[in-house]
Design a protein that fits this description.
CATH superfamily of the largest domain: Glutaredoxin
Largest sheet: 5 strands, mixed
Distance between the termini: 59 Å
Strand content: over 45%
Radius of gyration: 31 Å
Length: 682
């Protein structure tokens, strides 16, 4: 692939054709809105426009997008240089006499004042669109080559026989200076002197900044345009800005030009879906490892591993290894993950107090060995125990603010994220330094894990040269749960947990008993030891080759037995099942039981099958008609051995296996699978 050094890359591929659409809707719809805001870092009033466009995008998600065009002498070339030649050309194509101003769907040849942004946007959103726009951008993260497909479908007739498609690349979260005469956009500041510039125009992908031709433009027409574009490493000279693949977006919009006028109204536009993709057949990647779930006063924490398939083939199986605190957990996943698709695989870890590293390796996909690695961390916040005999408890927060009380906010939340109480921001004190005490009261429910969070917008806590602030939280009897007069140096935020109710819930669930198993059915039973009545009971059942469980609704009888059944099992499969009970929002599990469903239609193999000696001390002999391959799984569902069968008998060397029970999956030449067991005893 040729490397391009210019901000505007040459078009490598450009075609259109008429065919069935994949990405664009064919239903009539109203116009979406593209706001091209003319702005600059040395413009003290420009944050007004940034705030207004941000509010419009939040009010109309998926309908309104901004392109911030840095132009005029108020956009300096010092670092970060946010100017691009295409931006200056676009700005020169319209009439405006200062910044901030902007074009709302290019509704006229003259830019609008920021005070008009909202009314003009609402007006455009209520107008019927002549066409719909949709598409996808597949980016190879190794070569930075983007393959772009845009579809334009006409639900009505355009007034012009030729329209024009423009694709703009914008970038978010570019950190740099920004003049702000009146703190017009406080949400834009990430720290003193550091502003997060959003929706910054970085490049125009199409051949012409005013768009490539789209025709025909009559109702029912579908036009498909394809591009290949190499994303530059940096854009801008001097003091260029790195192009971060995680923070770029591509906006596509269709315009028409009124002959003899500078007006180029936008008929419709969209943000193109963006995925990662390579030319290799099997190529999953780990996009992230995140701790999930609300605040819990327990050491049991869940993480989700986000996997994306950027290869060509559909993924049907994957194996992951999760390393945590000296232990390795193997997860086997089965399903269908198409190209560009994503899957979140969840697992549970026992986490001590503190923050600890987690290492995940993707070791296998579709039977092919891999070594894709990712690192993250998982935390367990130490909680304060608060015993109460009441249904609720009143907490008291003593908060001593520093000078910048306008930067301080706090909240108490329940385990499901419900806000139980919040406060701030407070007033900024007039003196150069100083403090002011605030006493706040919040009522929280019993049997709940409550999280307290305090935040400082400037990221320097409530202390030091601006006044020695602090926070303290007490129970209804005045006992300090956490905090003291030195707790003001917390940076951006600090969090604490309170277990309201104090006493630990005593719950025991026995191992699940499995009965009446056939090709698709099984009955389950487990005993619950608990003084109260649970919110929910049931069974979590999964194939040993999958991490995604099937949740089976259960009932609790008068003998405190959890009962349930399912008719949704697959024949000739090995399953792992465990009972669970949900009590006060917390899920408790029993130990796992492994079982296998009966085969269907493997009578010849079943009748001829012989496995000996069982138990074995070394070599296991397996004989059977029509065998093709054998898989061995241990008691926790990990595949530990695979062997191809040449003939009707095989000798399996078990010397590498530890003592215990193992499961055999024997594949027959008619496509069926027979399950059996053996044990190793030395």
């Amino acid at each position: 692939m040729k490397k391009f050094t210019f901000a505007l890359m040459a078009l490598l591929a450009f075609t259109f054709s008429l065919k069935a659409q994949q990405y664009v809707s064919t239903d009539p719809a109203n116009r979406n809105v593209i706001i091209e805001e003319f702005t600059g870092r040395n413009c003290g009033y420009c944050p007004i426009g940034h705030r207004i466009t941000h509010e419009l995008m939040e009010a109309h998600p998926g309908r309104v997008w901004a392109i911030n065009v840095h132009c005029t002498s108020l956009s300096p070339t010092s670092s970060p240089n946010l100017n691009v030649n295409e931006g200056h050309s676009i700005a020169n194509g319209f009439n405006f006499d200062g910044i901030p101003m902007g074009m709302i769907n290019r509704h006229s040849g003259t830019a609008a004042e920021t005070s008009q942004f909202t009314s003009l946007t609402n007006n455009q959103l209520n107008q019927a669109a002549e066409c719909n726009v949709g598409g996808i951008v597949a980016v190879n993260p190794e070569t930075r080559v983007a393959t772009i497909t845009v579809e334009v479908y006409y639900t009505g007739n355009s007034s012009q026989p030729t329209n024009y498609l423009t694709i703009a690349m914008v970038q978010d979260s570019i950190i740099g200076s920004q003049s702000d005469y009146g703190d017009y956009n406080p949400g834009g500041w990430v720290s003193p002197g550091q502003y997060s510039h959003m929706h910054v125009l970085r490049d125009i992908v199409t051949n012409n900044i005013w768009g490539d031709e789209v025709t025909p433009t009559t109702q029912g027409s579908l036009v498909v345009l394809n591009y290949t574009y190499e994303i530059p490493e940096t854009i801008g000279s001097p003091n260029g800005v790195e192009v971060d693949l995680d923070n770029i977006h591509f906006l596509a919009f269709v315009t028409q030009q009124y002959q003899g006028t500078p007006t180029r109204p936008i008929l419709n536009g969209c943000q193109l879906d963006m995925v990662q993709g390579v030319d290799e057949p099997i190529y999953p990647i780990i996009n992230g490892i995140n701790q999930v779930g609300g605040s819990t006063c327990t050491h049991t924490k869940d993480i989700e591993v986000s996997i994306q398939n950027i290869g060509i083939e559909t993924l049907t199986s994957m194996t992951l290894e999760v390393e945590f605190e000296g232990n390795t957990q193997t997860i086997n996943w089965e399903g269908e993950l198409p190209q560009y698709g994503s899957e979140k695989i969840r697992t549970t870890l026992e986490v001590p107090f503190g923050t600890y590293p987690v290492h995940v390796t993707l070791t296998e996909a579709n039977g092919e060995p891999l070594e894709k690695e990712a690192n993250s961390s998982i935390s367990c916040i130490e909680w304060a125990n608060l015993e109460t005999e009441n249904e609720e408890e009143e907490l008291t927060l003593e908060l001593m603010q520093d000078k910048f009380g306008n930067h301080i906010t706090w909240e108490f939340t329940a385990s499901d994220g419900t806000v139980l109480g919040s406060g701030g921001p407070y007033s900024m004190l007039a003196s150069g330094t100083g403090t002011q005490l605030h006493i706040e009261h919040v009522t929280v429910p019993a049997d709940e894990c409550v999280k307290f969070t305090i935040r400082d917008q400037n990221g320097n806590g409530i202390c030091c040269s601006f006044g020695q602030g602090y926070y303290i939280v007490k129970d209804s009897e005045g006992n300090v749960l956490f905090g003291d007069e030195n707790d003001g140096q917390f940076g951006e935020s600090a969090s604490h947990l309170i277990s309201v109710g104090g006493a630990q819930v005593q719950v025991e669930i026995s191992e699940t008993e499995v009965a009446n198993v056939d090709s698709n059915h099984a009955d389950f039973a487990a005993h619950l030891t608990y003084d109260g009545y649970p919110d929910e009971v049931g069974f979590s059942c999964r194939k040993v080759t999958s991490s995604e469980p099937m949740i089976i609704e259960g009932t609790l009888n008068e003998f405190r037995n959890i009962l349930g059944y399912t008719d949704d099992l697959e024949q000739s499969s090995i399953y792992v099942v465990r009972a669970f009970a949900v009590i006060n929002g917390e899920t408790y599990y029993g130990s796992e039981t492994t079982f296998q469903t009966m085969p269907d239609g493997v009578a010849e193999l079943e009748q001829s099958l012989k496995i000996y000696p069982n138990p074995t001390t070394g070599v296991l002999n397996i004989q059977g008609e029509g065998m093709t391959s054998i898989e061995v799984y241990n008691a926790v569902g990990q595949r530990v051995m695979t062997q191809v069968v040449n003939g009707n008998d095989i000798q399996l060397n078990t010397e590498s296996l530890n003592n215990g029970i193992y499961f055999l999956r024997i594949h027959a030449n008619d496509g069926n699978v027979l399950n059996s067991t053996f044990s190793v005893a030395r």
